[in-house]
Amino acid sequence: MxxxxxxxxxxxxxxxxNGETFRMKNEIIHAxxxxxxxxxxxxxxxxxxxxSGLEEAFHCEKNEKTGEGFIRATVANGHEPISIxxxxxxxxxxxxxxxxxxxxxxxxxxxxxxxxxxxNSIADWDAPNIxxxxxxxxxxxxxxxxxxxxxxxxLECSEFQDRIHEHIRAEFQxxxxxxxxxxxxxxxxxxxxxxxxxxxGMFSREKDVALSLTSLELQKNKFVILYVLRK
Length: 231
What we know:
- The protein folds into 2 domains: 13-111, Sandwich (Immunoglobulin-like), CATH 2.60.40; 121-230, no CATH class.
- The chain is mainly beta.
- It is 9% helix and 44% strand.
């Protein structure tokens, strides 16, 4: 079976750095977003129903599957602060004032203490059949896994092991159900000096159907995340 590399997804849909978590409250929350990139906004144990504000100030996208939003300042707005209001499916509303800065994408996680909707698993979510195109279906499945991973329940299992390629180790972190797949997360690191070029094929194993790296370069004392969909 052909294995699919979907590294490019991470450039658009997720950032592991610059994350902030805020408890929802009846006052304005101050946070930062990147001017150059899409920034992810999510609500723990809830879903975003809408994001409103001055349309000329920002571009906004919403993922219907995960209930997360993505926001970026417009060129016309520049680095001016942006005021938005987020409404969740449980009916909670939160106002935010976003400082627009240069730098990497930001993940803003809100915690709704009153939410009764728990998003712990999407094990019954099946890979979409996009016009019968298998590769596009797998890419969509990987995208959904990456977006939902922080809020998916972890499986208690011992069958998944670290993956090693020469002096580079992919340390197993967690496993999740993802439709008809296992979704696996690994943290890649090395104790060797220098910069190393990574390739998904280094860590591919039998039954893997897709692999995705957060970066194609690795250095000592830094790490790269590997996502795997596996039958």
